[in-house]
Design brief:
binds zinc ion; single chain; TIM Barrel; globular; alpha/beta
Length: 255
């Protein structure tokens, strides 16, 4: 059984004390593949160091996170572009729109999202979408960029069944994490209506730890709790869900 954490910020300062141990703990449980979303240029070096330490297990993405789209976003997009030109990445992410924290840079967020989608298409890469309080805004950009080269993952999906179906219509898989274990998380109620071939697993660590760790630091080993919950939702064995979601991740990332 090989599990894939399609979204984990293992380079985060939250892991400075025990990064290798956290990775070893996950690997001991079968979580062998870690896909690492970018945030902004200040983390690029830490991401590359992480890759050097675990070259067979760590797969990097490149992108500018919507909450980090600020006055300097042009320079940040330049960095994304230069990095994509320089070396292999497995996705452009995480990118998107976040109106939960701050609406000041909505226009710039939309612009950065669109330009990064075009970069992904240029390099034939999937996108990994971050969407918070911004489904309409995200769908609007996707609608105008929709074509055969647009595909990827709707990370930390927390919308309705209707929004889930809409995401699938843009060639997106749904990234499911700790929220599915929350009592008020809601998505567990309808997820079984979305075929498993559209689902990938993620932790989004160090954020959004699943029950029974809710509120604590999340780590990739806790992907097992997400797996168990999904097995219950779909009425399948954990092994079937693990294998299928890893296959789905291979289909998206090409590795
Ligand atoms: Zn993230």
């Amino acid at each position: 059984m090989i599990l894939t954490d399609t979204h984990t910020h293992l380079y985060s300062e939250a892991f400075d004390e025990d990064r290798s141990e956290a990775i070893e703990r996950a690997m001991a449980l079968g979580v062998q593949r870690f896909f690492i979303p970018a945030i902004d240029s200040t983390y690029t070096e830490a991401m590359c160091d992480l890759e050097k330490s675990f070259p067979n297990n760590i797969f990097l993405m490149m992108g500018l996170h919507p909450t980090h789209v600020k006055e300097n976003y042009e320079a940040e997009l330049q960095h994304v572009e230069e990095m994509l030109e320089q070396r292999k990445f497995y996705a452009v992410g995480e990118i998107g729109i976040d109106l939960f924290w701050d609406k000041t840079f909505l226009k710039e967020q939309q612009e950065a999202f669109r330009r990064q989608i075009r970069l992904a298409k240029k390099y034939k890469l999937p996108i990994v979408i971050h969407c918070r309080d911004a489904f309409d805004e995200v769908f609007k950009v996707l609608e105008s960029e929709k074509d055969d080269d647009l595909y990827g993952i709707f990370h930390c999906f927390t919308g309705t069944l209707e929004q889930a179906k809409k995401a699938l219509s843009y060639n997106m898989k749904l990234g499911i994490g700790g929220v599915v274990t929350f009592k008020n998380g809601k998505i567990d109620k309808f997820l079984a209506e979305i075929p498993l071939k559209h689902i990938v697993l993620e932790t989004d660590s160090p954020y959004l730890a699943p029950v029974p760790y809710r509120g604590k630091r999340n780590e990739s080993a806790y992907l097992m709790n997400v797996l168990e919950k999904l097995a219950e939702v779909y009425g399948e064995s954990a092994e079937v869900v693990a294998n299928m979601t890893t296959e789905n991740s291979k289909q998206i990332f090409g590795i």
